[in-house]
What does this fold into?
Amino acid sequence: MLACFLLMFVIAPFLSARLGDFWSSAVFLPFWAFVYLVIWLIRKYVITPRLGTVNFGRARRAKLTKFTVLLFAFNLIALILGIVALLNLGGVPGLLFAVSLGILLWIACILAAYFLDLDRLYIYGLLLGLSPPVGEWLWTHGYATHHGFPITFGLSAGIMILVGLCRFVRVLRYNPIPDEGLLSKDA
It folds into this structure.
């Protein structure tokens, strides 16, 4: 899901000249709805029959609640900083903006990795944190257009999708659907 969200940074810059910045991002809403639907269907009809469901204990639920509150506050701060950057766009150097965005993405992934206990999010945080400054460097040196976002975020999204597909194939390979007879109480 995160990688599909990043695809917006890959494609939207090419659409912004025709649609404007807002609509070039808004056109992705149906795409995200489709991706969410596909993930939900896969989870319901492919993953759950193989692995089952989990009910989190009190400690895990408390940790997830803290994460939700922290993520809300973090997104609010990011929104405020984005509005400030928008209002002062001419006065903020591109590299400073790119480094700031990279730090925000990196911190968000580190927080998510810690609270969700997903170690691969540390690596994703590094990829996302480096994407804006590396893209800005590519753009300032004439190696890329659109501040390098299509290249750097495209590479990051591609790596995430590849890792996700590998993990999905591993789940399918090592967790076959149990036989109905094994699940029966009569057996």
The longest helix spans residues 58-87. Helices lie at 2-26, 29-51, 58-87, 94-116, 120-140, 149-174, 180-183. The mean pLDDT is 83.
